[in-house]
Amino acid sequence: MGKLTVSNDMAVAKESKSKDIIEFDVSNVKSKPWGRRREDRFNEKFKNKQRNKTSSKYPIDKVKTNTKSKKEKKRRYEIPEEVLKKYSKGEEVNLKKVHTKIHRTKIEQRERNVKFATEFAAKTEVLLTEETGFLEADDGETTTQFTQGAIADSVDITSAAKQFELKLEFGPYRSRYTRNGRHLVIGGKKGHVAAFDWVTKKLHCEINVMESVHDVSFLHLETMFAVAQKDWVYFYDHQGIELHCVKRLNKVTRMEFLPYHFLLATCSDEGYLSWLDVSIGQLASQYNTNLGRLSIMTQNPWNACLCLGHAKGIVSMWSPNARDPLAKMLCHKAPITAVSVDPTGMYMSTAASNRELKIWDIRKLEGPLQEYKLVSAPSNLAFSQKKMLAVGHGNIVEVYRECCTSTAKRPYLRHRFNNPIGNFNFCPFEDVLGVATNRGFTSLLIPGSGEPNIDSLEVNPFQSKAQRREAEVKALLDKIQPELITLDPAVIAEVDVPTMRDKIEAKKNLLFLKAPKIEYNPRNKAKGKGGSVKMARNKKILQEQAIREFSKSTKDLLPNKPNEGKKKKQAYNVLDRFLPKKKS
What we know:
WD repeat, Methylamine Dehydrogenase, Chain H, WDR46/Utp7, WD repeat-containing protein 46, nucleus, repeat
């Protein structure tokens, strides 16, 4: 093999075994300002010579380099099968039963799109860097032995600051968090109302309404909240200024806000169930349930239906579109004391006065999944984002972990208060349980209860004023109408078969009808001047008259229109003022 030496200061080119491929050794190039330029000129000469050769199989551009192989470059992320099953859309279509080639190709393309979407959704879990953590006990110990003081001492300073207690004097209190879990509003039975940022402990407003307060709830933003007072429902802003008073919502006991529909749902002491559209300030619907006093209410986030608990052991589900309940479940043989629905809309927990606690699959409306017998009758229930269940009875709060899929033998955590419990809620995206008691408010640390990964496009706890304005406008544009609230949201995407059948039958009846023939002999009636013109004009008049009569006769076969039964307004006559006036 020959060796080509350029100079001491330049690169050395060596011929390889394949003769057509040349390797350049640039190890001898000195670090001079002109050395690189000479090297580039030298390389360009050889490149041009190599391009001019007609017998060369491999161009000079494909010089061998010490790079990684293609397999190493295209190393893909191997998705675990468990994650793929989590995002799978079901079993694939059996193509053996598809006989036509066109339909087979369409189905194959659809299956490829579904597979790509499943893999793409599973890959997004790589970006979810945060993981949930739980308490683990040593041998011979249980997690219920850990107190709040021990947990606060073991965690970091930021998490320890989320465990605090407010001692107040106007209880019993009720509390509610915002959707992003950043702000908190509390209301005492003796009229004390306060809203604040519980993370930074910054107080927004604090007022005394001088009336009894039965429930509080934030609206679509933290700048507005509703208070169910003695007689009516009042709206306040974050500065404590009264914005509105709705007198049609009287003697309200519980409130729930539907964020995607902008509806404030309320149940009253007189048995009325109401939905108020806060975007336009009008009542969407209001029904008398005829089921007595309503004091137990929660919402199903999956389909936006309201779940009410009654004294006969029945849980009824309501929508603003129907005067009667969409479904009724006989859950217990004793009066129901508490109802709660999982944030994903999969599980529902109910408690009764006979100390029973049951977990239901709310999508199937069938028998209970799990049954528990407690020490005393629970008065409050709450699900967390990680399907932990908090049970409150008396002055004790117990938190159960994995109680929906399997039977929990003992509680995950337990905490005892000095006063009876008003209500409690899990804070979204935080391992915190906020408990309102007769003498204040307490924030408890529950490791592993919150969702660690935040979707900032859905709810953002760290949003600025500009982002809050944009989120409000976007939510109003994406507002869902109350007419779409049903027990099964998938029904909206299906075809209304009865209405479609009626329309098809009406069209079929019209197809078998034939227009009447026009019997007209123009020769006999064409007299005088312009006989052909009269003949064409008369024929056109008769045709239009026949079409008009035919359309009137077929109008009864079509489905009725919504405004058909309304009476037409009579035309105004100027002489009506001289008629004698009717006695009222």
